[in-house]
Amino acid sequence: MTIHLPTLRQLQYLVALHEHGHFGRAADACAVSQSTLSAGLRDLETALDVTLVERTRRSTRFTPLGEKIVAKAHRVLREAEELSDLVQASGKPLTGEIRMSVIPTIAPFLLPRMLPRLRKERPDLKLFLREETSADAIESLHHGRADCVLLALPFPTGESEQEIIELDALYVAFPADDPRDPPAEIKPELIDEARLLLLEDGHCLKDHALAACNRPEMRANATMIGTSLHTLVQMVDNGLGVTMLPEMAIDAGILNGTKVVARPLKSDSPNREIALVWRKGSPRAEEFHLLAEELRAG
To answer: What family is this (predicted)?
Structure first.
């Protein structure tokens, strides 16, 4: 039996279909028509002489072999990306394209003060940004959809390298008319866990806040409801509870126009670490170190 080698484009179609679970959405992600994507996948199956995807009118299901091929395809595509990275790394640093995923509790606060200077000083750099939760961002990194990730540590990042950009202190935010008149620095034991509002699951800031307080009962009693820090601030401003905010959000003016007051958390670990993360062994590692310096200067 003769097996023909798949093309990178066919592997991209396969990975996109696995990620989106729908031919139309996968085609949109690959910027091709649905018929082109379907034909490409049929050609792939014909070339390999196997069935990778079971198609019905209502669902798309990958065969066990299809799942294994997808996992291998991710690695092949990542290696192909690194071939291009090798060439780019040999030229002028911080030029061309860099795809960076950024978590939602950093993007709206750090990027506005960093991007204008970066555009001015590095005009040949095309920085494509994608806002994702930490877990999704790390998945994008290891599947080759992102070249680097800007997130907050501690967080599991797999086989990666990282450079710390800055420490970001945590603050406790409460209504200005709070009758208990909190002190200049708030110890974790002063926080009423029944009134504590935090971001919903999927946002690492929730885990950083709970870890900083080191009170296990908080995880059970705090309300995980906010979809963004701005939502939490509005809830606090309306007297619905208290929350915890990173210093960068406060410096960026998230409390402007509200009657919310924020004071530093006093604990053994009151900070989260803002870090740039990239794949271990990336040929663009020196470039990412340079990008980390640029971010730090911002």
So the answer is: Belongs to the LysR transcriptional regulatory family.
